[in-house]
Write a structure and sequence with these properties.
alpha/beta, Rossmann fold, Alpha-Beta Plaits, six-stranded mixed β-sheet, four-stranded antiparallel β-sheet, 11 helices, 14 strands, binds adenosine-5'-triphosphate, binds magnesium ion
């Protein structure tokens, strides 16, 4: 057994709890966000994401548990680490009749960031061409970019975005993903919360999945998804016969409306085996492929009834 010291994570939370009267908003939550990369903080509406982030940033007190940012216990040592952190929790306030550039210049002054950063961050979020227009003329997506630009003024190592794509159109969501990917690729850590698991899967390296205030699963997306086995999806002309043939071979068959989803209960199933078993009985498949599990399915496996049967 080697004894390498673990690298200090960007965020380390253990046993965190917060109660609002009878509601356990956060209940013994654990989360570790490694340095570098995009970390998805995922859970349905009301599962405690915003409450957790607000406690981490010292905006509300916790009832119990421990939180560290870059190894420093918070909120106790928040003043020492806060300059390493940029966050969008609530929609930030900008002046309607000031341009993006002027809004950021004011903010830079207020937080003591060099004015030269303003142009850099506008460039970074793709607003450079529109920086002289008044804030009130901006679309929702542009406002969101400006909010991201504002968090970058201090050149933080950790960025925390709470549900950043709420209200954005598909193009806006796509652009935002590209922005956070870039930030992570430049060595920063991005913690991004969302209730839409599939949306974050495309950009997150690691995730924490929570429900009802507690942690369900955590780790690299690839590892979490590899833990189960992907179903083989097959479309055939005679689904009822195909179903019987595959079941007789000891496989598990479910329908998804149009196709059969086939798995082996105790291990991996190759698409070729499904095609061969059906072909041997004179059934030809018109579509065949492996359906990748996604975080949404993983979430349902962790929380919901197994097998899909009611
Ligand atoms: N100030 C408050 N007073 C009372 N209850 C609260 C308060 N803030 C949050 N809660 C409750 O705590 C629980 C967790 O809320 P929270 O906002 O953290 O969830 P969330 O995961 O961010 O949800 P969403 O995806 O909808 O943003 C919810 O049941 C919510 O109603
Ligand atoms: Mg929230």
């Amino acid at each position: 057994m080697t004894d390498h010291p673990q690298p200090v994570p960007a965020v380390a939370i253990t046993g965190l709890s917060k109660r609002y009267r009878s509601i356990k908003a956060v209940d013994n939550l654990t989360m570790t966000v490694p340095v570098g990369g995009v970390h998805g903080f995922l859970g349905p509406n009301g599962s405690g994401k915003t409450t957790t982030i607000r406690m981490l940033l010292g905006l509300i007190p916790a009832d119990g548990g421990s939180m560290r940012l870059f190894g420093e216990p918070v909120p106790q040592r928040l003043p020492q680490v806060i300059d390493k952190v940029g966050a969008i929790v609530e929609q930030p306030r900008f002046f309607d009749t000031f341009s993006a550039r002027k809004n950021l210049a004011l903010l830079a002054q207020a937080i003591g960031a060099p004015l030269s950063r303003v142009g850099e961050v506008l460039q970074q979020v793709g607003l450079a061409g529109r920086e002289r227009y008044d804030f009130r003329t901006y679309s929702l997506g542009m406002k969101q970019r400006l909010a991201v630009a504002a968090t970058l003024l201090k050149d933080p190592q950790l960025l925390i975005f709470d549900e950043p794509t709420n209200g954005l159109d598909p193009q806006g969501i796509h652009d935002f993903r590209a922005t956070i990917r870039q930030l992570a690729d430049s060595g920063r850590t991005v913690l991004v919360s969302s209730h839409i698991l599939a949306e974050v899967q495309q950009v997150a390296d690691t995730v924490t999945i929570i429900a009802r205030g507690g942690t369900l699963a955590e780790g690299p997306v690839a590892t979490l998804l590899a833990a189960g086995s992907d179903p083989v999806r097959v479309v055939v002309g005679e689904p009822a016969r195909a179903d019987a043939i595959l079941r007789a071979a000891g496989l598990v068959v479910q329908g998804d409306g149009r196709a059969l989803l086939v798995t082996r209960p105790d291990g991996r199933l190759e698409a070729e085996e499904v095609a061969r078993r059906l072909g041997e009985q004179g059934l030809w498949v018109s579509e065949l492929g492996v359906q990748r599990r996604n975080l949404e399915q993983l979430y349902l496996e962790l929380t919901g009834p197994v097998g899909g049967a009611a």
